[in-house]
Amino acid sequence: MAFIELDNICKSFKTGNKETIVHKDLSLKIEKGELVAIMGKSGCGKTTLLNILAGIDYPDSGKYLFDGTETDIRSTRDGIEFRRNRVGMILQHFALINDYTVFENVELGLWETKLPRSERNSRTNAVLDRLGIRKLADSYPDKLSGGEKQRVAIGRAIISDPMLVLADEPTGSLDSETEKEIIDLIRELNSTLGMTFVIVTHDDEVANCCNRVITLQKH
After folding, report:
1. Angle (nearest 5°) at CA 157 between 75 and 186
2. DSSP-assigned letters across all residues of 52-121
3. What stretch of H or E contains 199?
4. Closest CA to 63 of 33, 89, 95, 26
5. Which residue, among 103, 108, 150, has the nearest Cα to 125 in the 3D structure?
6. 173-200: string of b/e by CB count within 10 Å (b at 16+)?
7. Model confidence at 38, in pLDDT bands (50, 70, 90)?
8. Is 176 helix (H, G, I), strand (E, B) or coil?
9. Which residues contact 143 (CB under 8 A, 6 or more apart)?
10. Interatomic CA distance for residues 170 and 180, integer angstroms
């Protein structure tokens, strides 16, 4: 059985009397430990798919199975419970809190856990070391480069040791040299930690670094 399985997922949005179909009978499978790129033209539902996988949004119909268990996400609280210790997220524009240090921003990835302070500190320092940003622990986001900010965002996503990491255009705000560094880092984390990564991207170079590409069609 696949790690992630979507079976005939349908999703639409209504604006007034107008209904826009984003996904119709979408089915796909992702195996544990894969590094998968999601591609397609603007408006084809890439981000909506990512939100469904994260439990931020949910389908109108169809099944979403995660690690062999069918999910039943119908509210914000359901989504929070689903993501806890299962899903980490990396966003294009970093989504760091400017009033928090690098250490505090990474530690935020543990806010839904009940770990004692000593364990939180230990985990945060270990992630900072792994990502090569321990020396920036007391710095604030406005003092960081784009690549450093994305490393902080990645640290926040992986600190809870999730089974699945979702990334929405993780290199979209970076120059080409820094983009390569971040993709190499993601590949290394995927290989050494065994986490499954699903990356939404418009960039062929990013997609070519993944194990598999899933291309969505616009309805």
Report:
1. 130
2. HHHTSS--SEEEEEETTEE----SHHHHHHHHTTTEEEEETT----TTS-HHHHHHGGGTTS---HHHHH
3. strand 196-200
4. 26
5. 103
6. bbeeebbebbbebbeebbeeeebbbbbb
7. very high
8. helix
9. none
10. 11
Q: What are phi and psi of 18, to 5 degrees?
A: -95, 130
- Answer whether 47's CB lies under 8 Å from 93's CB: no
One-letter-per-residue 3-state SS of 31-67: CCCCEEEEECCCCCCHHHHHHHHHCCCCCCEEEEEEC
Q: Are strands 196-200 and 87-91 parallel, antiparallel or unpaired?
A: unpaired
Nearest to 196 by CA among 29, 30, 71, 1: 30
For the record, the structure tokens of 175 come out as 């120059």
Place of tokens 């839904």: 112
Amino acid at 207: A
- Residue 158: in which H helix or E strand, if any? helix 146-158
Q: Each residue of 42-55: pLDDT tens digit? A: 889 999 999 999 99
CB contact at 8 A, 196 and 32: yes
Distances (CA, A) of 200 to 68, 78, 89, 133, 156: 23, 24, 11, 25, 18
Average pLDDT over the chain, rounded to whole?
93
**pLDDT band at residue 197 using 50, 70 and 90 as cut-offs:** very high
